[in-house]
Known about the structure:
about 280 residues, Chemotaxis Receptor Methyltransferase Cher, domain 1, Rossmann fold, seven-stranded mixed β-sheet, binds S-adenosylmethionine
Amino acid sequence: MTVMNRQYTLADSDFEFFQRLITVQTGIVINETKKELVYSRLSKRIRALGLSGFSEYIDLLRNVDSKDELVAVINAITTNLTAFFREEHHFEYIEQTLLPELIRKNRNSKKIRIWSAGCSTGEEPYSLAMVLAENLGADWDWKILATDIDTDVLNTARSRIYSAERITGISAERQKRWLKKGTGPNSGLVQIKKELGEHISFNPLNLMDRPWPMSGKFDFIFCRNVIIYFDMPTKTKLVERYADQLVDDGHLFIGHSESLFQVTDRYDSVGNTIYRKR
Ligand SMILES: C[S@@+](CC[C@H](N)C(=O)[O-])C[C@H]1O[C@@H](n2cnc3c(N)ncnc32)[C@H](O)[C@@H]1O
């Protein structure tokens, strides 16, 4: 059905162009129910660029030099919903089970490497950083690689600044320890302390890219609420690439509505949406 009750017309063929473009570029599957979303998010770009409508916008995107506009389409289409300590049981498992194991296993190197893949605006890696900082001594070398395809969310993440409404998932004790409250013109905002940020490196990365640019292996990977947007072959390829990127016995954490059942047999389930590489 053509969406035409608004300023622009999104013809079926235009929508199919965006479906193909987004799936090829990002792995994200856009079905018919996303038509309104595509319309509303991309019509903002059309307006900002002063174009006449979707056909002119598609002509622009077909131009080989329109790489920046392709980034704008991807940033507009991604769903970035996230929260501090989202799916709290993952953080409890890390604190109570995984970190004690890693502290024993890595006692000689005193090194821990983590990847937050699809980190959105940073709440996930900062939550992880709080747990690690609270449980590892200053002599430990721990780092979190935090990546996302969406360059806008990475800028928010790097700023470490959040509105006060966003921090409800952080306990009062942690808020006191890890956040600075804004005053005057910054009241209503909080900033995560720099010492946590220093353990995290935020980088743009499309998970569909081959090969990935990092060479080292990770003790555990968070890829939560990301594969839900991919089709089955893409999910399988991705989680199998994660297995190659994990150390022996490395862990993979996925989102609450995701599962590796019938996706791959390279992991054992060790908890609710928590997997260990076989
Ligand atoms: C719903 S958010 C999840 C954020 C966080 N992991 C959480 O669970 O709260 C999904 C994120 O995955 C990112 N994403 C989607 N496709 C991607 C791809 N092909 N490569 C890298 N990131 C991608 C989106 O930009 C978005 O920020």
